[in-house]
Design brief:
With about 220 residues, the chain is an alpha/beta fold. The protein has a single domain, classed as TIM Barrel (Alpha-Beta Barrel), CATH 3.20.20.190. It has helices at about 20-25, 60-65, 85-95, 110-115, 125-130, 135-140, 145-155, 165-175, 190-195, 210-220; strands spanning about 5, 30-40, 45, 55, 70-75, 100-105, 120-125, 160-165, 180-185, 200-205. An eight-stranded parallel β-barrel has the order 1-2-5-6-7-8-9-10, surrounded by six helices. Strand 9, helix 9 (about 190-195) and strand 10 (about 200-205) form a beta-alpha-beta unit. It is globular, with a radius of gyration of 17 Å.
Amino acid sequence: MTYLTAHAGSDGTKDNTLPSVQYGLDSGADCVEVDVRRNDGGTLVLSHNESSRDSVPLADAFACLKQYPAKKMNCDLKTEGLEEAVYQLALSCGVSDQLIYSGTVEPVDFQRNHQKFAKVQVYMNIENLWPTIYENMLKGVIPLRMMDVLKDAAGQGIEVINLEYHVYDVLEDDLKQCGLKASVWTVNETGEIRRFLQDPEIINITTRKVKEAVECREELC
């Protein structure tokens, strides 16, 4: 079954707030996404851009998650070097086996470094592998070495590539040839949600229209 992830701020809730987290956990989706960075005091908080004093501590979001042991939380890491700190906080909150990482996860020596947060499933953002991929795609250019990059990623133990869904349509065959699954974002159109729910290569769909996505999945099942 394809995972459904409630994007931060799903169905009109405010991004990166506890009500948004709670809504995602209650929605029927399998996972809720939050944006994570450190504030000026070094605390891990929910924030897409530079954090403010009223940003929600990640520990509070983990406390909500703990009440839903069958659910997961996708921590979209907004700055480098957060993998271990977020994992250690999750361990202390009792939710270390409920984490998914996306965002700025370091792909270099991934197989070795992943042992430091081994319970976490990783959706590796494609721009971590090729930083100019979206700029290239806007110009209609597919990097000639993309297949080599994807093969290297698979060889490092990366299993899932996280990418904007229009880019998936271009790279679908390359991903399949490399044995990689895909997590696609942010899919909000009903027809596209239904299409991806029926694609066996898609492991996760991230959407702001989570209620509608859940209904689509129930209909297809």
